[in-house]
Each structure stands twice: as structure tokens, then as C-alpha cells.
């Protein structure tokens, strides 16, 4: 009987601190990323203004130039873009054929279904990302730390599976919301906090 009670308590605790594929990102949600480059470390703060049909967010950086701006990702790009924007210079930006902060749903579908996907970066560099399983990643939501289910993907130096990725991603493991949780492209971005527009 004691064993059963302990098991029930463990399950309740685990479920209360683990978020599955229903992690909700809605209007008013704030995402706080840490950014580490060779030149400086700073925060990249994303304020979600609209999720559907186009995805719109405002952003600010605590970098030396205090960069701010607004990005609109068109619905078609959210669904099927194969291009990824990772550099922001401030001001307003409308993305018709590229995504950012999120991988497109098509990219994520390809990773899950075929094990790889093509991704083109800002500078025109074409990468083939390969899937590498699932894991969890701790993120602060409200006042608590939760384990977020993530999907691992990256570009390998060669075709050898035992070598590390040259570029790597952790993506929210959700077909409808493949948010970038962390990214290493030679400089690193990591989601450290989600501030919801309501109490968690």
C-alpha cells in the first residue's frame, strides 16, 4: 500500500513539473533567451503580439546597441519555409519565405518523418539538419522550473553518427509549435524563461 501511495505521489509531482506538447504560447507571452557570442553576452527578449494567422512579435536586446524591432512571419512561411533568419538589425521585418524563432512546420515534419530536412540561412548557406532523438530541457515558467520535451537536430560534420553536430538545435517537441529552445551555430542561444500572460 505504501508503495502504491509513493508511486501516485511521484506521478503527480512529475506531471506537475513536466510540460508536454500542450505548452501554450499565446499573445502576451514573453520569451527570454540568453545569447552568447564571441563579442558579448546579452538577453534577447521576445514579446508575442499575435500567433495566428501571421505570427508577429516585438523584440529587444540588452546588447551594446540596445537593438529593438518587430517581426511578422507570414502564415505560408510558418507552414513551409525552408529559410531561417537568425540576425536582427532592428526595425520592422516581414518574412514571406523565411521563419525565425520557430522552425517551419514543414522542416519539423521532415525531421520527424524522414530524419532530415534542408535549411537555408541568412547568408545563403545551405544546411542539412538530421534528427537525433528526444530529450527534456529545463525552462523557468512563471515562478517554477519545468522540464520541456525537446527534439534534437543538427548538421553533422560528416555522415558519421558518432561525431558531434557542427550546428545544433533543441526544438519544442510539438508539430504545431516547433519553437527553437536552444541553438548553437558557433554562437549560442538558449531559452531561459517563459513569462506567460497569466499566472502559472
What does this structure look like?
This protein has helices at 2-16, 75-80, 105-114, and strands at residues 30-36, 41-50, 55-61, 68-73, 83-84, 91-95, 116-121, 126-141, 144-156, 165-172, 180-184, 188-195. It is of the alpha+beta class. It has one domain. Mean pLDDT is 88; it is low at 2-18.
Note the main attributes of this structure.
single chain; about 200 residues; five-stranded mixed barrel; 3 helices
Q: Report Rg.
A: 18 Å
Terminus-to-terminus distance: 33 Å
- Principal-axes shape call: globular
Q: What structural class do you assign from the helix and strand content?
A: alpha+beta
- Round the mean pLDDT to the nearest integer and report it: 88
Query: What percent of the residues sit in helical stretches (DSSP H or I)?
Result: 10-25%
Number of helices: 3
Number of beta strands? 12
Short description:
This protein is α+β, with helices and mostly antiparallel strands and 200 residues long.
Amino acid at each position: 500500500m505504501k508503495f502504491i501511495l509513493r508511486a501516485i505521489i511521484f506521478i503527480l509531482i512529475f506531471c506537475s513539473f513536466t510540460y508536454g506538447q500542450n505548452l501554450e504560447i499565446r499573445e502576451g507571452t514573453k520569451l527570454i533567451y540568453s545569447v552568447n557570442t564571441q563579442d558579448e553576452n546579452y538577453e534577447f527578449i521576445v514579446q508575442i503580439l499575435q500567433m495566428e494567422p501571421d505570427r508577429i512579435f516585438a523584440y529587444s536586446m540588452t546588447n551594446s546597441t540596445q537593438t529593438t524591432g518587430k517581426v511578422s512571419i507570414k502564415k505560408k512561411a510558418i507552414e513551409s519555409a525552408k529559410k531561417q533568419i537568425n540576425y536582427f538589425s532592428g526595425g520592422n521585418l516581414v518574412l514571406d519565405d523565411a521563419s525565425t524563432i520557430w522552425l517551419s512546420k514543414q522542416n519539423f515534419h521532415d525531421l520527424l518523418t524522414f530524419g532530415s530536412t534542408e535549411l537555408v540561412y541568412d547568408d545563403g548557406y545551405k544546411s542539412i539538419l538530421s534528427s537525433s532523438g528526444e530529450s527534456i530541457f529545463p525552462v523557468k515558467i512563471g515562478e517554477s522550473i519545468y522540464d520541456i520535451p525537446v527534439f534534437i537536430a543538427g548538421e553533422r560534420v560528416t555522415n558519421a553518427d558518432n561525431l558531434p553536430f557542427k550546428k545544433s538545435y533543441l526544438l519544442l517537441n510539438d508539430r504545431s509549435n516547433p519553437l527553437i529552445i536552444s541553438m548553437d551555430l558557433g554562437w549560442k542561444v538558449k531559452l531561459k524563461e517563459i513569462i506567460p500572460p497569466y499566472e502559472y
